[in-house]
Amino acid sequence: MRLGPGHTHFLYIYLFNILFSPVKPALVNVTVDDSGQDPVTNRTITYGPGWHPGQNCSNCSITTFGSFDPGKTYQRSWYEASYLQIGLPQFATFTFYAGDIKMMGSPSLGSAIYVFGILARNDGPWLARNLDLQFYIDGRLMTTFKLNLDFLNKKKTTFKQPLPAQHTYNVSFFGLNDLTNGEHSLMMVNGEVRGNNTLALFDYLVYSYDPENMTGIGAPALISQKVVPQSMGTIVGGAIGGALALILLFASVFVCIRRRQRV
């Protein structure tokens, strides 16, 4: 079959778009343990009064009955905070860098942050607990996470659902995406003034960023290979190899088309 000039022109444009289309970058996820460091910036989570490392707390609520399994938590650690309607709510803060990805001709791909924790099981009215968490980004309240297990409280509440019959691990307490490029602060608050008794069990958080935008934030010059699994040499070599393969394909198709046109 002989290709007409119109078909040949369309094929050239198609191959050119494949060859010179930009490679879509990808965001990198970073996991920060409750008691660990950010592997990219070496920053840690700052806890206010009332927060305690659960694995080292013999009289904390969750470890009293011996039904808690540390092996189901991330890095076998967690932080606990109990608010008993006395004093101020408990605060925990973390500063992270959100680097969005901007593609030519398309909207930017924003970064995200997620907070995970544990729901304590229903151990009866002698361990009546609620979960009442508020999440702030850059000082602005974004959302709340509330559950109710206060058998002694008969008044109406705005809590969504009862706590489970068994401990539930790896529960998503908070999630937010489309964060703008730059530094952000996350603040997690357990309890409300004159609110119900609350028990918070925080395990870890995950945020995403663009490695190419990590500038001017005091991050280490070398990023852990656990965070960025591919070296720059591998990425560049793969890109060059792929480009050469497409050039050879383009040349082969061009030769075939020219031969068919001469027949």
Average pLDDT score: 71
Return Rg in Å.
27 Å
Dominant shape:
globular
CATH architecture identity of the largest domain: Sandwich
Summarize the main sheet. 6 strands, antiparallel
Structural class: alpha+beta
Helix content range of the residues, please?
Answer: 10-25%
Give the ordered list of helices and strands.
HEEEEEEEEEEEH
Instruction: Tally the beta strands.
Output: 11
Classify the fold: give the CATH topology of the largest domain: Jelly Rolls
Keywords: Membrane, Signal, Transmembrane, Transmembrane helix
What does it look like?
The chain folds into 2 domains: 5-21 and 232-262; 28-209, Sandwich (Jelly Rolls), CATH 2.60.120.260. The strands form 2 sheets. Strands 1, 3, 4, 6, 9 and 11 form a 6-stranded antiparallel β-sheet that branches. A hairpin with a 2-residue loop joins strand 7 (131-137) and strand 8 (140-147). It is 18% helix and 31% strand. The model is unreliable at 101-109, 124-128, 150-159 and 216-240 (pLDDT under 50). The protein starts with a helix and ends with a helix. The longest helix has 31 residues, at 232-262. It has 263 residues and is α+β, with helices and mostly antiparallel strands. Keywords: Membrane, Signal, Transmembrane, Transmembrane helix. The chain crosses the membrane at residues 235-257. Residues 1-25 form the signal peptide.
